[in-house]
């Protein structure tokens, strides 16, 4: 995945934050925190994972996907941008 090299430090920082969130979930469970607290930490971690996935997937789309011939009246970037928009909406 050569395109990840450009953003290597940013991606690693995201992974480290996610690791910290997972560690916090583990501590909350060990310390028998309430369900609501644990659920909030889990959903925060899930959001961070989805954000990481979206960034890597978007870069993959921009770097590696070959666009189909644009439909009449569409600019060349429309198909790729529409796919990226769909992916972003999935992760919201």
From TrEMBL:
Coiled coil feature spans: none
GO molecular function (one): metal ion binding
One family name in Pfam for this protein: Trns_repr_metal
GO terms of biological process kind: negative regulation of DNA-templated transcription
Origin superkingdom: Bacteria
PANTHER family registered for this protein in UniProt: TRANSCRIPTIONAL REPRESSOR FRMR, TRANSCRIPTIONAL REPRESSOR FRMR-RELATED
Family stated for the protein in its record: Belongs to the FrmR/RcnR family.
Protein name as annotated: Putative alpha helix chain yaiN
